[in-house]
Amino acid sequence: MNQSQKQQISDSSPEADPSSNNKKPAKVWDESRLIVLLIGLSLLAEGALIHYQAGDSQFLVAVVTGIAGLLMTFMAYFLPFEQEPEDEQESGDKQELENKQKSVESKTEEITQKIAEPESPATEKSLVKELVTGAEKPEAEPELSWIERLNKGLTKTRTGFIGKLKKLVLGSTKIDSDLLEELEEALYEADVGVKTTEELLAYLHEKVEKENITDPNQIYTLLKENLKDRLNKYAAPPTLSKDGLTVYLIIGVNGVGKTTTIAKLANYFTKEGKKVVLAAGDTFRAAAIDQICIWGERAKVDVIHGNEGGDPGALVFDAIHAAKKRNADLLIIDTAGRMHVKANLMSELKKIQKIAEKESCGGPHEILLVLDATTGQNAVQQAKQFNEALPLTGLVVTKLDGTAKGGVLFAVEEQISAPVKFIGVGEKMNDLMPFEPTEYLQALFADDTDKKKESDYNVVK
Q: Is the Cβ–Cβ distance between 179 and 172 less than 8 Å?
């Protein structure tokens, strides 16, 4: 093909044809124009619908709506279109295709390189650095001591129950029958219970008459002394076996915080240097096994578990032997939440107790009932019923930070003659500790000041 033929072909191509310039450029309907068009059509339809449904009564509204829709429709259609010459459009499409091809090639090369050279595992330092240098995070609150957490957790009880007693007694000018009646009512309202209240009042009457007391301030002092004596009457530390595995059986109704209490117990004893194993003995409640496994992971302890719906007695048997093989110091057994009035469910607990007694030396060393302090006298009834089924060795009273009453702790000890072994004053892992009557009373009767250290409190003597 000679040069003239090439020139003819070139001249006859659409790009060389001048008439091709007369062709209208492609019209582009962008997103905003389509939205305006749709709104206009919607208003037209709405205006027609208003007139159809309401008639002449809404004629003006229908007309205005229709005109607005018509204007928006015309605006969407007749405003100048965004124009893009075909040759530029084609070249742009070509360029875009080339860019996509390059992007795909680049990503393929990057993936191939990652496969060939696997990323080195993150080190502890790199993870810490990532956490520190990441998005700005608020500074962590300083860790409070147990005395500080206890003082903070008992704020509601101190301002409620104790505050009312203080106001009632210290606000009186004399000791008479009216004062003692009001004091009796305040003790009942604080869930101290009938038995404990009657004994407290009898003690005050005897002291007033025998020592000829006339100053109401002394009544307040006598109350503190008597409450301290009551708490110390049953006080006992948590039991730990000197030889071999210690077994704790944790019981209670659903909703009192039993599973979280088990995790907090595991956390406490782990910090005390004990090797702890948990047993997921609640095989009835849905997701109970998963829940205690998650808590076990947080507390960094092993969890022995079976299948949902399995025999809890068999699970306890396996858990005791598994804990022994692990040379564990403490096995904490979770149990299904049982209503204290269900005899058949309570008998299941007796079965578990017998298995623990047979398979462990002297176990279970603690049978701890978990009680919710916010349930008041219902907690006392639970303790009574459970104690009839099993010989309770102690109580764990949770959620003391959530009640303004707080008297249930005194009432429940008197009801079953068993000590409070642990108390919980918050949701954090460190918010459950062994119960110390002196520390508890220091926080309970502390003035509402900025006292934070043990030495800041006046010990009740």
A: yes
Residues 6+ apart with CB under 8 A from 323: 245, 277, 279, 304, 331
Q: pTM here? A: 0.66
In a domain, 427, yes or no: no
Burial class (CB in 10 A: 0-12, 13-18, 19+), 367: buried
Place of tokens 């032997």: 321
Residue 173 placed within a domain: no
Give residue 30's pLDDT band: very low, low, confident or very high (50, 70, 90).
low
Q: Is the pLDDT of residue 16 over 50?
A: no
Tens digit of pLDDT for each residue in 60-115? 777 777 787 777 777 776 665 554 444 545 555 566 666 666 665 665 566 555 54
Compute the chain's Rg from CA coordinates. Answer: 39
For residue 441, the surrounding DSSP H or E stretch is: helix 437-444
Q: Tokens 């298995």 correspond to what residue?
A: 355
In a domain, 190, yes or no: no
121, 132, 146, 148, 389 from 143: Cα distances, Å: 32, 19, 9, 10, 41
Domain housing 78:
26-84
C-alpha–C-alpha distance, residues 166 and 183, integer Å: 10
Structural domain includes residue 17: no
How many separate domains does the chain show?
A: 1
